[in-house]
Amino acid sequence: MSRLMTRRNAALLLFSGFALLPFVATMLGDSYLVVIATRILGFAIAALALDLILGYGGMVSFGHAAYVGIGAYSVAILSRAGITDLGAHLLAGIAGAVLFALVTGAISLRTRGIYFIMITLAFAQMAFFFFVSLSAYGGDDGVTLRARSTLLGRPLLEDDRTLYYVTLAILVALYLLAVAITRSRFGRVLTGARENPVRMQAIGFSPFRYQLTAFVISGAMASVAGVMLANQTGFVSPAFMNWHVSGELVVMVVLGGIGNLLGAVAGATIALLLEEWLGLLTEHWRLLFGLILVVIVLASRDGVSGLFRRRDRP
């Protein structure tokens, strides 16, 4: 009970901090903080989606950037067709991601370990090169959005603060959904399948069906991140689904703590803040970032969240 309260307090503190950030940016006279924070929220959604299958299902997907890209391209394609509503963009992104995850997941989940990692990477690269070949949408160069998605028929998201709060609301909603999933019977079976799939099958559960369902849910959540990131950048290109983006998402989850949904959000926040701050110091910021990641992982196998839990112990 105490652990549950601690997690709730940590979530309340983190999301309250996000809610107050635009006011802090106004006081500091630095509107760029809201732009950076919106990008952080978008990647936090993607990291949360990945942790759902990585931390609770033991599925190390190295192709989750594909779903981010599908969400981003849903904005570009529908906007070009004259459909600008955010709800329509989200539904299209989710539908595309569900279909892609259903097909690729059904194949990928027949493998294990390094083979699963490589096949998810292969499918993501197939998606990457497919969108590179779409010359109507700029091919490898991508396409600039004429405007952000509309909300309730109005261009409300053109205001950076409105876009920020909508993205934050979506993140909180998906976080609560992910928590509900992991605490449900479905989540317990998924965790059991990660620990011992043979035993779960022996007591009447089909690990494959539960893992595939979780894989599809995770892909759908990641596509939402793509929709919001496309609106934040105002630009969509195949770079959204490049393999290194998938690697960055894995790093965010590891940094925050695998199997800790709030840790995934914190990991995305810390990773992108470090990228901004270290980038100001040197063009070789990735070297420093790597050293920091190694130190954190050596100090705690559960990432940053593990460090805080260790500190809270008497």
TrEMBL record:
GO terms for cellular component: plasma membrane. One of its GO terms (molecular function) is branched-chain amino acid transmembrane transporter activity. It is a multi-pass membrane protein. It comes from the Bacteria. Its main location: membrane. The keyword Amino-acid biosynthesis does not apply. Keywords: Cell membrane, Membrane, Transmembrane, Transmembrane helix. It is found in: Cell membrane. The chain crosses the membrane at residues 35-54, 66-83, 89-107, 114-137, 162-181, 208-229, 249-274, 286-308. This is Branched-chain amino acid ABC transporter permease. It comes from Paracoccus siganidrum.
